[in-house]
Amino acid sequence: MPEPVTSEPTVTRTTPPLPTIDPADRAAPVERRAGPLPNARARRRYRLIVVGLAVLAVVLAFANLAWDNPMPIDTEGFWIIAQMRSTSLVIMLIVGFCQATATVAFQTVANNRIITPSIMGFESLYAVIQTAAVFFVGAAGVTAIQGVPQFLGQVALMVLFSALLYGWLLTGKYGNMQVMLLVGIILGGGLGALSTFMQRMLTPSEFDILTARLIGSIANADASYLSISIPLVVLAGGALWFCAPRLNVLALGRQTAVNLGVDHRRQSILVLLLVSVLMAVSTALVGPMMFLGFLVAMISYQLADTHDHRYVFPVAWLLGFVTLAGAYFVLKNIFYAQGAVGIIIEIIGGGFFLGYLLRKGRL
């Protein structure tokens, strides 16, 4: 007998319903466009950082003017004392701008974010000038190299030194940036050795006087230098700001910049000369501050998070002023050692440099 046909059980498959999304929870389409800040979130973040740094700069500036001021704030005496202290704030604005702008532009041209303009021997040349004045003239040499003509002479000598170096090493047939940096390091080492040799020949009292001049300090600056420093800084800084679009192209590398129609060698020499003016003014004004520019530039790259120098420069300037004003306020009012601003910045900047180098693992 035929076996009865058994039908297989019917399996009913049901499609799970799609989850419903509340229109309010739907993510808005991401707005992206070509530019230094690609979307609204990046633009909002940049504005918040700039506003936050500006507010912090104003707070630190007012704290430096008002802290330990014996006069009530609504009296004329308060503002007279504040006006006397404001000279230090102007100097910090100039030094912060010079160090930050010069370091960002120099690292762009060198295509390396480790090195700074200090590697070209500005500090060593400054140390040789100061040491030679004390070595040949004695303790009175420190006074002899003060004044507007002497300040202009120091700035002119440093700019001439860098112009000769750049002109010699970048305009030759085989000139390139790596050779220029190597020669700059060697010359800086040679000038440092010459300065050390003369320092060994000084008397203890002369050496003490010289040491105070070789440490970067806001107190070293003379208010009479500001009438010369400010126009130089405005001209050099304004020219770098005008060159910001070309700096963006130079940051892509030599080959790419040449393919895009930029005269790489000419633009590099122009930028390096402007950098030398800023570094010469800063060094002649307050003394050597080797790691300030590096510290400010590296943090600015992280905060600005863009390649466009028109956005990096303001963040770097504000950060440079905040760093100097904060260090000056703490050392002056808490540790009573405002002359050690350069030492503290060198320690923090040097530690930041080593940490960055170890984390990156290469130069």
From TrEMBL:
Subcellular location: Cell membrane
Region of interest (Disordered), residue spans: 1-34
One annotated GO biological process: siderophore-iron import into cell
UniProtKB keywords: Cell membrane, Membrane, Transmembrane, Transmembrane helix, Transport
Chain segments annotated as transmembrane: 48-67, 87-110, 122-145, 151-169, 181-203, 223-244, 269-299, 311-331, 340-358
Residue stretches of biased makeup (Basic and acidic residues): 23-34
Gene Ontology CC terms, in alphabetical order: plasma membrane
A Pfam family that the UniProt record links to this protein: FecCD
Sequence similarity: Belongs to the binding-protein-dependent transport system permease family. FecCD subfamily.
Protein name as it appears in the record: Iron complex transport system permease protein
Organism: Stackebrandtia endophytica
